[in-house]
Design a protein that fits this description.
The chain has 302 residues and is of the alpha/beta class. Helices cover 51% and strands 15% of the residues. The N and C termini lie far apart (65 Å).
């Protein structure tokens, strides 16, 4: 099947490779010329053709055009869709595989529908391992459009790793909650391993424990397999600063939970913990220390 991929970062670049290996024909574009060049050097180059810009993407595709966006949420995705609208035709399909807010996806679906262009949102999980292991795809859109694109999804997905979850917007909604759950799982592992690392009674080998937990334990998971890999490289994680970014979905999950009056204390707390990781020193902690000194005469560290 022929399609275009716009956005050749860590995810998009690997997806191009997997699609080319699966026999699809691709037109690719990225603002980075180096990212485009790298695709030609990675094998399967005969199935991959570069475009000069977004308009050239449309020119190189035969109707019914399918354009997959693998771009950061927000302005980059918004701008690219605006550039695509005048150069695509009725019946063409735009797939957003990035981590867009589902409300943006609902709005974009309506904007494109007004021009006769179909919109599909494909929540994509799998990270840098998707190239070899396959991705988990949570796809939203009309059934007929999703079925038209199904050969793409089946090539990208791990076994049983693709599902049509509902109309346009549903894919990104499911992916949002998926990432909110991920926040909570990561925080639980982080806290558990920190307790083990801080033990005053035992000097524990975290890599050995992580590996053990992946065999028969109720806390075994792919994330814990990755923990074992990380600890095998450096059991103290000495080369990593404890700064944790959030990419938006955790915030959106918490906002949606509040809107629906659904208690989500674990996901909420894990999001707030990420904010704490970005502070060199917490002013709030200083306030607590000062107040404890004032009301109880407790010592403070200076």
């Amino acid at each position: 099947m022929q399609l275009a991929m716009i956005g050749l970062g860590r995810m998009g670049g690997n997806m191009v490779k997997r699609l080319a290996q699966g026999g699809h024909e691709l037109v690719i574009y990225d603002q980075s010329a180096d990212a485009v060049k790298a695709q030609g050097e990675g094998g399967g180059a005969k199935a991959v053709k570069a475009a000069r810009d977004v308009s050239d993407v449309a020119r190189q595709l035969a109707p019914r055009r399918v354009v997959w966006l693998m771009l950061p949420a927000g302005a980059p995705t918004e701008k690219t869709i605006e550039q695509l609208m005048p150069v695509l035709a009725r019946g063409d399909i735009v797939i957003d595989g990035g981590n867009s807010n589902f409300r943006d996806s609902l709005r974009r679906a309506e904007q494109l529908k007004a021009r006769g262009i179909d919109f599909v949102d494909a929540g994509t999980s799998g990270g840098i391992w998707g190239l070899t292991e396959g991705y988990c795809l949570m796809v939203g859109g009309s059934l007929s459009v999703v079925q038209h694109c199904e050969p793409i999804f089946r090539t990208l997905a791990a076994p049983d790793g693709y599902a049509h979850v509902g109309p346009a917007g549903a894919g990104h909604y499911v992916k949002m909650v998926h990432n909110g759950i991920e926040y909570g799982m990561l925080q639980a592992y982080a806290e558990g391993y920190e307790i083990l690392h801080s033990s005053q009674d035992f000097k524990l080998d975290l890599g050995k424990i992580a590996k053990l937990w992946n065999h028969g334990s109720v806390v075994r998971s792919w994330l814990n397999e990755l923990a074992a890999r990380a600890f095998a490289d450096d059991g103290q994680l000495s080369g990593i600063r404890g700064y944790v970014e959030d990419s938006g979905e955790g915030r959106w999950t918490v906002e949606e939970a509040m809107r629906l009056s659904v208690p989500a204390p674990v996901i909420t707390a894990s999001l707030l913990a990420r904010f704490r990781s970005r502070q060199e020193e917490s002013f709030g902690a200083k306030v607590i220390a000062a107040l404890r000194r004032e009301f109880g005469g407790h010592a403070v560290k200076t």
